[in-house]
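Protein modeling request. Please complete all fields; requests missing the sequence field cannot be processed.
Requester role: graduate student
Desired output: 3D structure, token encoding
Chains: 1
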Amino acid sequence: MPVSFEDATGPIDVTLKNDMMFHLVMARSPKALKGLVCALKGLDPKTVKDVILTNPVDYSMYATKEIILDVKVSLNNNEIIDIELQMYVKGSWKLRTLLYLCRCFDSIGEGDDYSKLKPATFIAIMNDPLFPEYPEFYSHYELLNTKNFHSYSSFMKLNVLYLNKTDIATKEDIDNDLVYWAEIFKATTWEELKKICLKNDTFKEVAQVMYKSNVQSQEKTIMEAHEKYMLDKRTLEHELQESKEELALLADEKAALTAENSTLAAENSTLAAENSTLSIEVSSLTTSNAKLLALLKQNGVSEEQIKAYLNK
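Delivered output (312 residues):
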């Protein structure tokens, strides 16, 4: 078995899109963590003193559990960054990102001076755009005046990197190596990964940590089990949603049939009333005809004469 990713070939069993692999690489490689944070923040690594992971995880505990494997970072001890890999978006995703950003910003204790608050940035790494009508490779959001777009504060920011939109990356994105990072996330074979990583020491380290975790049977088993658990959970959620939609459709059809039945019942009731009226009118005419016939007979007009008259 090869000892390095440089000699590996074929498909990558657990890629960097696996959230447990992503967290593991960032936890084991300070160089990779610093490189990604600098790329996402547009910083020169030489100007960064330290990038510290603040939420280490015991991965063995979460093979068959749902856990948010975000990467929480302290940048130069003066800024909080939370990076989350989210390949499958739920309907509540946007609200969830706002909550995570607020939690990042809430970094002081009860009674502490507000001046101790640190800038906070939540960064999501996703496949496809949340807003397809406004396609971007790397989106930046912060609190702005909606009339003149003046910034209220730069202390709370929310950024989203869309891996499938590298074709519209800006020059700044390219200069910050974000396109390379996106390609690393998307790589599915060791050959693809080598083309990207061999020219950069930081990327080499990312690839090597990925390779070691892929060949270590215990870690690989845990990551695959976690991925299977999350896939099964998403499948069940999808099936549940489909069932809810089907039930809603059946309820609509039932309501339509009930309304139609109600309309038919009303029409039947109207027809019954009309029939009753006609029956009364027929009975009345029959009685009148009988009286008229009797009167005619009294006046010497025979039944044959009446029939002959009616047949003219």
